[in-house]
Amino acid sequence: MLIKTLVVGQIETNCYIVTDETTLRCAVIDPGDESNTILDYLESNRLTADAIFLTHGHFDHRLAAAAVREATGALIWIHRNDAVTDGVDQFKLPADPDVHFYKEGDIIKVGNLTFDVLETPGHSPGSVTLRCENALFTGDTLFRDSAGRTDLGEGNIHLLLRSLRRLYSLEGNYEVYAGHMDTTNLDRERRFNTYMKYAAEENPGT
Questions:
Q1: What's the angle, vertex CA 127, arms to CA 190 and CA 72, rounded to 5?
Q2: pTM above 0.85, yes or no
Q3: What whole-number distance in Å separates Cα of residue 126 and Cα of residue 91?
Q4: How far apart are the first and last CA of the chain?
Q5: Per-residue pLDDT of the chain (206 residues; tens, 9 = 90+)
Q6: Residue 174: CB partners within 8 Å, gap ≥ 6?
Q7: Vertex 67 angle, CA 23 and 64, to 5°
Q8: Which of 9, 24, 84, 95 has its CA 20 to 30 A from that of 59?
């Protein structure tokens, strides 16, 4: 598995290209902007994009999704709670009939890679974490030394703390690829992340 990070857009969102090096088939996670940058990387590395995974529906994580889909034919995936089928909401994806909805426990294959969907709401009602091999793509749920804000859209601090507690409780030490800022790992965040420690130790919210 090869993971390429492209930092895109005014809010410097991490867009991840996750590639099965055997088949050169890949997933594009959170194409937040700059579709040309994303497509140039795919073309220059002769990659075939099979899926566009959105960790949540906030605009800075999905502005380039439609353009990447149009250019590649890749399927867009998002949780239903972060999509709207009519109207406009900057915190939700405008979902046309070709958008696919995933949920807890869904498993999606890209080449020889397997992506497991974990529902981790709180930053948004439909936030998910995608697990692939030893990597977690946490969107804006978990950051290095921090966690997602809950004062936007339908954010919910109690749900976020529950999601952080869930990630804390996962067995093993995963590499954590967050929606913004630097990569980290789960053991480090268990030790040093104040938000995650509070969620795990104080057992707040229900």
A1: 115
A2: yes
A3: 10
A4: 36
A5: 999 999 999 999 999 999 999 999 999 999 999 999 999 999 999 999 999 999 999 999 999 999 999 999 999 999 999 999 887 888 999 999 999 999 999 999 999 999 999 999 999 999 999 999 999 999 999 999 999 999 988 999 999 999 999 999 999 999 999 999 999 999 999 999 999 999 998 665 44
A6: 131, 134, 135, 136, 185, 186
A7: 95
A8: 24
Quick check: is 85 in a domain?
yes
Tell me the one-letter amino acid at 166.
R
Give a yes or no: residue 175 inside a domain.
yes
Q: Is residue 206 part of a domain?
A: no
* Count: domains in the chain: 1
CA distance 3 to 20: 9
Query: Domain with 70 in it: what CATH number?
Result: 3.60.15.10
Q: Give the total residue count for the chain.
A: 206
